[in-house]
Amino acid sequence: MDTLPLYIALVFGVTLLTSIVLFYKATHFSKTVLAVILLWIIVQSIISLTGFYKTENTSPPRFALLLMPPLLTIILLFITEKGKQFIDGLNIKILTIIHIIRIPVELVLFWLFMQKAIPELMTFEGRNFDIVSGISAPLVYYFTFVKKKTNTKFLLIWNFICLALVINIAINAVLSLSTRFQQFAFDQPNVALLEFPFTLLPAVLVPIVVFSHLVSIRQLLSEKD
Length: 225
Hints:
Oligomer: single chain
Structural class: mainly alpha
Largest sheet: none
Distance between the termini: 50 Å
């Protein structure tokens, strides 16, 4: 991993920054949300730099520390009254265009595969079709919110499909890690996502993407009631 070309980390860093800025804007510039995200990034960066996640066959897998806190936070927001109020106040337009970040993410994953840091199945040449979400996001945004040529049902279906795509690659990525739960890619396992800065993909980027879809789906279903 130390020999990776610098441009991979740079593109990933710019993508991460872009996602944070867009999500911050979607929250109507909530300083509390921004502070929580930045603190989480700092904590996970420090942990990753110690090599903590590179230790294999622990029980439970250390990789869970990247995924569980964001997942529990999302669940908490959806089941509490204050959380629901926060969710319903988010800007669905920004939460739609934010998915454009999935284009550079897919490029980074492909470059990591070329460097033998992740398996092919995690790229658009394998089982990962998530780049479709990134390519379609600006088109969906334009025809829905600018031209107003689509309806709520169309946007709802798009969100469900894109949510399924990101869940698909997330599952494949986890099952490609060198843990006792590994099911795929034994010849070239997923090692990049266990090292900084790429630990921030499951820790930050994936939760933002998933949360954006879930919020949009909730808001759109509320409109139909």
